[in-house]
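Following up on my earlier message about manganese (II) ion. Here are the inputs again, as you asked, copied directly from the submission form:
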Amino acid sequence: MGESAFGVRYNHAMATILLTNDDGLWSPGLVALRRVVASLGTVVTVAPDHNYSAVARGITIDRPLHIQPATFGDGFPGYAVDGTPVDCVRLALLGLAGPRPDFVVAGINLGANMGDDVTYSGTVAAALEAVLLNVPAVAVSVASREPRYLSETAGLIVPFLDRALAGGLPPRTLINLNLPDVPRSDVQGARLTRLGRASYHDQVIVMSDGGRPTTYSMRALKNGGDASDEAGTDFAAVREGYLSLTPLLFDFGGDRGARALGDWDLDGLFGRATAAVS
Ligand code: MN
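Thanks, got it. Here's what our run produced:
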């Protein structure tokens, strides 16, 4: 039994908690996370040495990886890896960067990870990698690239993490948590949500058209008035000042996909293809 800096009483055995992110080891989001999680267990930080946002579940396979012990700006020790967030999680879970963690928290990402966008996210992928390796994991993001209130709202996740550490999370399910960037006194509470739909228009800027190859800058512009306004979604919760908790169970298609193609005559289709080749 102990007491954290946020007055939360915890009674789970001291866990080893891996902190990682995709914004890179110098991100203020990682510092904020470490500050609030430090009292919940033994913290191991293994983070990419530069910003790997939007690399999703990418891994490094074309070169060896380096793990460097590092002391962060806030005096905390950890490890810097010249690889992706998922590389960091894999190395840490192999016990190659300090004690093997039994819980993973990724973040706090500067910028929301909601709706369809979670499939781009290195933060969410880091947590996904952990749950696929049977280690419970939470991804945490704040809904601003330049958050103003993170230092006061980050502590709000401590009771939840404390409960998750004590009681466990559902197997193969990661919790995707998004914080609104509002003063702590304006946070309305927390909502269990589902992923909304992010809708974008791509804006393409031609950078040079004189030489070859032509280069482009592609930027996604948010399209207003889409399905993300639906009640019950992560977008709606955060917009209304709530913390959003979305349990994510990765099942790309599953039974629904099989049902959709269930009445296709595959024997006929592939039989015909084979006959045409021979
Ligand atoms: Mn990021």
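One observation from looking it over: Confidence is low (pLDDT under 50) at residues 1-10. Hope that helps, and feel free to reply on this thread.
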